[in-house]
Amino acid sequence: MMATIDLYAVFGYPIDHSLSPDIHVRFATETGQSIRYDRRAVTLDEFADAVTGFVEQGGKGLNCTVPLKEAAYTVSDHTSPRAQRARAVNTLLVCPDGQLYGDNTDGSGLVRDLTLNLSVSLSGKNILLIGAGGASRGILLPLLEQQPARLLLTNRTLARAEQLAAEFADFACIEVQPLATLRGTGFDLILNATSASLSSDLPELPEGIVAPGCLCYDLAYGSQPTAFVEWGLRAGADKSVDGIGMLVEQAADAFELWRGIRPQTAGVITWLRNRGRGSGGGSWESGLLPAANGHF
Length: 296
Ligand code: NAP
What we know:
It is built from ten helices and twelve strands. It is α/β, with parallel strands linked by helices. Strand 8, helix 7 (158-167) and strand 9 (175-176) form a beta-alpha-beta unit. It binds NADP nicotinamide-adenine-dinucleotide phosphate (NAP).
């Protein structure tokens, strides 16, 4: 008898360079699951119809990336507490009755990469989070749950950071300051959750914000070390890494939600990083990948 092959996909726009199909097919192979995982270019305007069509086609689960995470929250019939807090969904599960359950695995993926893969404890640390877009929305709660001593949020458009901090005010006090005023204030962890790296750009980072032992972490990743990863190394960070580990970890959470089985991630992260080395150099820290552009 033929095994049933369950259908999954990632929706986003642009989507050509998404690594999610590679990651999920590898998870499926290693856990003995029969899945097909498509990559589909879907704009915001097309999203609701595309989801309906996917469910009618028998699809079992979706990943949603830029610019669809807030729309994915809106189309969900039920959502996890962390998705409700973020008001954004990156993983949809099609339930047996056809209803959509929305989750947000970005923050848990980041925290797992930091704490398990990079062995960084966040408890009692001073954290600077740069950016107030969809990614920051998803990672704020899981970061705060690690009980840092201080979480300072900043953004090019400060009003967006203030709005985001206000949304989390019942959970924790999040300080908001313009980046330029932080000169000389050292942080143990600096997270770049802006999309600046996608255009080889950098936020305007002041001097003196890298404390001894600091980890600089760019949520973005690319075929070259991102501008932020390079800045971190120049500024004296102990380590400066890109977001490939987060990408694999958030995918593992989605896979577990869909298939009920937890895939191993270390081998997949190494596999992706080695693919990068094969295409012209790189390091664990910079996490080079061929033909990747930061979308997932
Ligand atoms: P988004 O919602 O479009 O938000 C973009 C953010 O970047 C805003 O805060 C924006 O500031 C800021 N920004 C853009 N260009 C900038 C520049 N030149 N200088 C300073 N700030 C700039 O994007 P997102 O969904 O939050 O994604 C942010 C990044 O995280 C992307 O690189 C994405 O690929 C990455 N990401 C990675 C993973 C992973 O698994 N590794 C998961 C999620 C996201 P304004 O408000 O002033 O416009």
